[in-house]
Amino acid sequence: MRIDILAVIPELxxxxxxxxxxxxxxxxxxxxxxxxxxxxxGLGKHRQIDDYQYGGGAxxxxxxxxxxxxIRTLKQQAGGYDEIIYLTPDGPRFNQSTANQLSLKRxxxxxxxxxKGIDQRIRDVFITMELSIGDFVLSGGEIAAITVVDAxxxxxxxxxxxxxxxxxxxxxxxxxxxxxxxxxANFEGREVPEVLRSGHxxxxxxxxxxxxxxxxxxxxxxLLE
Length: 225
Fold this sequence. Notes:
By secondary structure, the chain is α/β, with parallel strands linked by helices. The chain folds into 2 domains: 2-153, Alpha/beta knot, CATH 3.40.1280.10; 168-224, Trp Operon Repressor, Chain A. It has 9 helices and 9 strands. β3 (50-52) and β4 (60-62) form a beta hairpin. The chain is elongated, with a radius of gyration of 21 Å.
């Protein structure tokens, strides 16, 4: 899978891509991530990418010309995109179901917003999907983009050492994950539940389901609705 990221501050993305699961995914050749600087497509000698918004008001807006040129150029280089995704606080909420869907794509482009956002005409013409990682505002879309890359990348077959691990994560079955334990069996007087040490797979599965349901009802009852 290939993921291209168009960013205003590409330096914010370098660290997460060079460590842990995302680095291993790239080393295995299962995931390609390319980061592009929007300023490389900026206007004039100062590589301008933003301007004041029509109608007045505080905050700058990313101009349409650099974005259009960047998207067209990158689309041609990549051989087309399955999705061109704009990361924005007013987009639909990114969730595990969307991550699953995106992990099946061949190539996607993530467009990072900045300041007050991007010119609406770019959204109307080029963007095929919009995503928000929560009901809050970040300084830019780079952190949101790396969140999407991480959530999607770990779902690609072969990325995780145990592919069944992702299938038991929270939200995969509409529930929060149950409690997990490791050694020692007794920690400061607190015992690991006996059923988890029994080796009885059916009983363990039932216990995990009941605990997942219990946690979901308590913490995220909206998921059960």
